Amino acid sequence: MKDGFIKVAACTPEIQVADVDFNVDKIISQLEKCREEGVKVAVFPELCMTGYTCQDLFFQNALLDKAMEGVVKIAKTTADSDMLVAVGVPVRANGKLYNCAAVIQDGEVRAFVPKTHLPNYNEFYEARHFAPYRGECAAIDLREYGQLEFIPPMEQTVFVCEEIPELVVGFELCEDLWVADPVSNYLAKAGATLICNLSASDEVIGKDSYRRQLVSNQSARLVAGYIYCSAGDGESTQDMVFSGHNIIAENGSILAESRLFENGIIISEIDFKKLAFERRKISTYPASAEWDYSSKDSGFLDKDNISRERFSLEMGETALTRKFAKTPFIPSNQAERNERCHLILQMQSHGLMKRIAHTHSKTVVIGISGGLDSTLALLVCVMAMDLLKRPHTDIVAVTMPCFGTTKRTRSNAEILCDALGVTFREVDISKAVLQHFEDIGHDYNDHSVVFENGQARERTKVLMNIANQVSGMVVGTGDLSELALGWATYNGDHMSMYGVNASIPKTLVRHIVQYYGDTCTSDTLRDVLYDILDTPVSPELLPTDESGTEMTQKTEDLVGPYELHDFFLYYGIRWGFEPSKVKRLAKYAFEGDYPDEVIDKWLKTFYRRFFSQQFKRSCLSDGAKIGSVTLSPRGDWRMPSDAVAKLWLEDIDK
Q: What is the pLDDT at residue 289?
């Protein structure tokens, strides 16, 4: 449970219709496996004690009594476990029969949560046997079945973990999700961060896809974890077939999913601190109701008849089994990745198109270095001009070689511009920079930050003045990763009139350029894009070797691997994780790629630079938001430029 991770399970046992003893044994067997895996919340299917398909056998007292005996027997097997368990069972109360989830922990049945919406259409006839829940309450006396310590209520209840306040568990049953106003909406308003759905959803063609989308979307809408557990093999096939389709989701992401028609257990870990962070961040998310904590068992009811009970979990570190992508900004599926790249290019080019039209710019001016960022920005400029139905020659691409420019990048810049049909200009800034060094009394052999930034600021001055010459606007090339690290020269490449890459992390820039190369029709363009992709990332501000072919400065040697920094950016800034948690996930995701001490080193670099370089982001140029992470001071990120990183750096060493 360290860092907010709770291991959960959806369990579909083999059952036999109306054979409660058989079903109880299978449920207990799966509970033992869950216990061995460290599961803290386990959910079983709707009416799994008896079988969902008992039909008029539900009217038989013998079956109902045996089901209650079975629930108590299961409860007793949990006496030495803190696992919160939910199993489906028919319950007699108030002279009616209810379809319920029996909530079990610490050797006791804690509550029976009734089903609200009963399907009575197509193949379903639940209203023939069960009563819908309408807010009524009842005490279920289990003494004759062997539970003597506690009389559980039958009512809608959420369970609050005493040790982890972010973990609040609510229960609904099958149709309660499929209706226009799901019960889980109200559970979430009452504070539930984990929704457990006990289901008996039969399988028909196409239903699995709809079910998956339904669970994913509801978990996203509620910013919640979701366990959907459905009936499987063993239910009657007289009129229906059940596939045991189980799903574990977190805020729209599917963490685990069973294969159809394979009974068993799926397990994953839900991050409840992450969910709590997102709910706090979303200002429109409703606040949880105020509750009376004066008595543990008082079951205080709000106006919607949702009571609140406490439960306790033994604290410990949750072993992680879920996957954390090394590149969280990039979809793992190639088709999805290509679609994402296409959409991003459309968003970038439409944003730039609007700015060009609004400013009545006759041209756009861009510095082209032969590197990744300027290449992507140039491709966006081309697409924007195509949208405006203007010639590519209205793009003025300027290469500005100096002391660190290699023959390879200089050549690639020219080939790229020629292949795209843009106006190409070369302005060698060496003499201007040397004159500037002489003016301010800086020794050329002193390759300090003055040496580097003098070139970067000269390039920006050239671009701005050329833009004035050609009635144009300067398009910025810097990306999101560089902004996070402050890897830009203040009032140099830090400045532009519109930054098209400002919301694109470096790892994603590479994939977008790769996608453009893969899908373009020009062999020349494709070849030069591929060569640019193979070129190490470098600002090329330090002198090359004597041949002019080898760069002596590589960005990732200086500030660290961009795949690590983008990982830190996503989890540390987008999700607000503590640095120690970011470190834990990075070591888990990059195991075998980087030694622990290397991850520690670059994580400290990330936070140190992120805080110290905020002043560059506080006056950031305009640029459209593209993804869920952006550092614009007018958008998602507002931070004082003089904030201190001490707390975050100390947390890394915890």
A: 57
